[in-house]
Amino acid sequence: MRQQNAGRRSRRQTVPSRPPLELTGKETEEAEAVPDGLDSIGDIHNELEFTQWYNELEDSLLESSYDEYQACLHELQMSKSHLDTLLSDTSSTLDLLSNLSKGFKAVEAQTSNFRNQCEGLLSAQKRDSELATDIQDNLQYYDFLDPASRKLNAPGAGNTVRGQEFSDMLRRLDECLDYMEIHADQKEAGVYRSRYRLLMTRALTLIRGHFVSALRDVYLSVSKKIADKQLNDTTMSALLYAKFRVGAPELKQIGLEIQKRAVPPLDPEQGTEAEYQSLLNELHANYAAIRGKLIVPLVRKKLNEIAQAPSTSTDLVAFARGSISYIRGVCLDEFDLWGEWFHGQGGLYDFLETICEPLYDHLQPRIIHEDKIIKLCQLCALLQTRYLFDQEEETEPTDVNQLDFSTLIQPVLEDVQTRLVFRAQAFLRDEIERYKPRPDDLDYPARNKQASISVTDGQISGRKVTATDALANLPKPAKQPEDGADSPSEQDSKWDFESQVSPSNWYPTLRKAIWLLSRIYRLVNSTVFDDLAHQIVHQTNISLHHASSLIASKSVTDSQLFLMSHLLILKQQIVAFDIEYVAPEVSFDFSGVTNTFWELRERGGLFNPRNLMRLVGHGLLPRVVENMLDAKVELDGRLRTVINDFISGFATTMTASLPSKFVDTRNLQRGELIYPTCRNIEKEVPNLRTILNDYLDDVRMKETLVGAVQERVIQIYEEFFDKYMSSEKSKGHFVSTKGKGREDAVWDVDTFADWCESIFRVGISGADDEATSRSRSGSLESRSQ
């Protein structure tokens, strides 16, 4: 029994532990059943029986659940076996997949290699295709040589130049030449380039030949019709212009093929511009020659008719006006016709100059033989105002589609201006520089009594000016009339000088100088005018000084007033001409070098380096001398000098009686020192005003001069008074500086100045001379009492 229980325990212990099973109703009934040994729990009487009953019960329970455990174990073993099989299958599957993966990678590697090989083949194919295409593209520039040569060298090739196919061939030749220029490194590029250039030259030569041939045919047709019968102007115009316009557009188009290729290349070594430009020049030259054969004879004939006309045969200006108007009309027609034959204006003005040559041939001799300055001036004014543009006022550029006639007429203007300057210089030399005055020319102030010299008002400003500056800086007058008249009543027979353009009391050289300046002003180049105007003013200055020196032999005062009045007029007149400063003439003075060497030689130190270094800054080097010949500065300087000389001369005359040495005034008569001077001043003031009235009409100018003389007299008296005071103080005598002092003494400066104001009466005009003289005498007598 115990052995069975032990075996059961051992089997029970082998059963794996698991959660307690839930017993069904049947199992519960079986568990509650009484074991075989004891009928019921009531049969248990002692502990041994209980233990036996408990063990039997436990064994029975174990026996009853063993089958279920066995069934579960069997299921578990089956599940394990299945899982092991599944795991084995999975491992084999993974191994298969791994093998497949390796196979796929091998296939992928092979595919990549195959693809790379295919791509290499494709790239090689593409490269070969591109190479074949490039070879084909390159070969087309080489293959074009033979067909182009056959076309250009075929008989009658010149008849095809007007077709579109010929223009396309020229374009292809340009492309081939450009290709050869770019790919100069190719083996045969240089050879083909030279051949293509020969073909291009051949093609353009064919165009030139056809152009010239067509132009010659038109010329022959027109010239034959002109020679057959006498034509009127309308028919002649139709032949000369309408006939030439018929085929002009088509010929212009083929001529444009040459012009497009005559543009200079960027590479100066290309050397194609000379050849192609020469072809274009041949077109222009042939056209100009053919048109010249038709037009120039007609122009010469027309100009001869104008030159022989009574109204223009002797009048330069009338001939120039008529002939230039006719030439301008012809040039306008030729300008329009040129635009229908050619694109651009290259060679146009050379052709128009050929048309204008008959005009030059007629005008140049007439201009050279024209001696009248007025005619030359009128011709200059005509050319400048009607046919030339004012470059200073022109703001917009000239339209290239319009004829610039000024370039054609410029040579005529230059000839006229050159002749005008030459005649002006001759006039300056003969009539101003070498002028010899007649006695009537120097009869001053008698000439002023016939006509008065008119001078405008002086400068008015807020600052105080001296008398000299007030007279030397007068404003400009009205400008002389520039175009006097074609037939003045009084003219110089040699120079056509208009004597009525200026007052008759002016000195002749002054009148001629102003007349000459007014004539050439704005008719010649500004630089030339400035230089010539300075010479005119300079020589006029010299002439006026020479005349003044001749008048000075009779009267110094008249000579000074003559020079002063004429210099004032000259200054006023030249302001209107805007004379600019003349550039300085720089020269080297070597006189100091010679003097220095002679000085060193006399000193015996010629070869002493110390002496040479010491004398470097004292004449060893030549001096730079600037000779500035400026007419305005020269005129102002001489005007101030003559005004100062006149003022000083009159003031010195008035104060000549003032003593230079002083004695004891107590031994002198009353007023013996001052009264003679006062009487002399009272006497000279009317003379001063009288002589000023003879030369000047402007009241302000005369009063300015009188005031200047008064100031100078007071200055001289002040110097005299200072000397007098010094003399008296040295003798110990007291001299009062306030008031008149003693009756027999001199006046102080303020008293003398007050007295001078009452005598000179500056600024008071229109006073009666006799009353003024009596009042002045009375004032002096009242002071002497």
TrEMBL record:
Q: Which residues form the Conserved oligomeric Golgi complex subunit 3 C-terminal domain?
A: 237-593
One Gene Ontology BP term is: Golgi organization
Record-annotated Conserved oligomeric Golgi complex subunit 3 N-terminal domain positions: 72-216
Subcellular location(s) per record: Golgi apparatus membrane
What membrane topology was assigned to this protein in its record?
A: Peripheral membrane protein
Entry-linked InterPro entries = COG3_C (IPR048685), COG3_N (IPR048320), COG_su3 (IPR007265)
Alphabetically ordered keywords of this record: Golgi apparatus, Membrane, Protein transport, Transport
A single GO cellular-component term from the record reads:
Golgi transport complex
> Is-annotated flag, keyword Lipoprotein?
no
Q: Where is this region: Disordered?
A: 1-32, 473-502
Q: To which protein family does this belong?
A: Belongs to the COG3 family.
Question: Matching PANTHER family, A to Z?
Answer: CONSERVED OLIGOMERIC GOLGI COMPLEX COMPONENT 3, CONSERVED OLIGOMERIC GOLGI COMPLEX SUBUNIT 3
Name the chain's protein: Conserved oligomeric Golgi complex subunit 3
UniProt source species: Aspergillus novoparasiticus
